[in-house]
Amino acid sequence: MPIAQDPLSVEVTLPREDVALLTVEGHLDVDTATEFQHHLANQLHHGRRHFLLDLSAVPFMDSSGMNIILRVYQEARDLPGSVHIISPTPAVRRILDLTGVSITVPVSESAEEALERVDRSPEVPLED
User: Fold this and answer.
1) Which of 44, 82, 116, 124 is the most exposed place for a label (fewest CB within 10 A)?
2) What are the tens digits of pLDDT across the range 40-52?
3) Residue 8: how many other CB atoms lie within 10 Å
4) Contact at 8 Å (CB) between 36 and 70?
5) Angle, alpha carbons 66-77-58 (nearest 5°)
6) C-alpha–C-alpha distance, residues 26 and 28, integer Å
7) CATH code, 38
8) Nearest-5° angle of CA 29, CA 98, CA 61?
9) STAS domain: from which residue to which, for each copy (predicted)?
């Protein structure tokens, strides 16, 4: 008998009008990725440009979760905006490092550190 996974929990708070902090809890995988994508799309729809993704309560993430993070990173970059990963668990950090996602998407230890990075980020869109 398979063990039932805990459902994904995503709490959204707004530290600033254009910044969404998404606190994610549970496994971020093929079964829960669509729900995570809906939360991000909703925040994009409401004009958020910067996304802080707190992954401190995500014990496991597969390629589905990584693909969504990279997709929102690309969309935010085009606004211009940014995506920051906060406090990933060791297992998730290992995946981010092995796949190179942590090179593309900045990793911070706290929401405060990520907000400081938002403040330092340039507001000019990159040329194609």
Assistant:
1) 124
2) 999 999 999 999 9
3) 20
4) no
5) 25
6) 6
7) 3.30.750.24
8) 15
9) 17-118
**The pair of three-digit structure tokens given for residue 27, joined into one six-digit string:** 């496994």
Q: Please give the sequence-ordered ranges of beta strands (E in DSSP) within the chain, or none if there are none.
A: 9-16, 19-25, 50-57, 82-86, 107-108
Q: Is 26 helix (H, G, I), strand (E, B) or coil?
A: coil
Residue ranges making up the domain that contains 20: 9-118
Distance CA(60)–CA(26), nearest Å, equals 8
Decide if 39 is inside a domain.
Answer: yes
For 18-67, the pLDDT digits (tens) are 999 999 999 999 999 999 999 999 999 999 999 999 999 999 999 999 99
Which tokens in the block code for residue 126?
């990159």
What is the chain's percent helix, strand, coil content, to nearest 5? 40, 25, 35
Query: C-alpha 109: how far from its chain's center?
Result: 13
Q: How many domains does the chain contain in total?
A: 1
Judging by DSSP bridges, how do beta strands 9-16 and 19-25 pair with one another? Answer: antiparallel
Does pLDDT of 121 surpass 80?
no
Distance CA 69, CA 128 (A): 21
Q: Rounded distance, CA 90 to CA 56, Å?
A: 9
Q: Is residue 27 a part of any domain in this protein?
A: yes
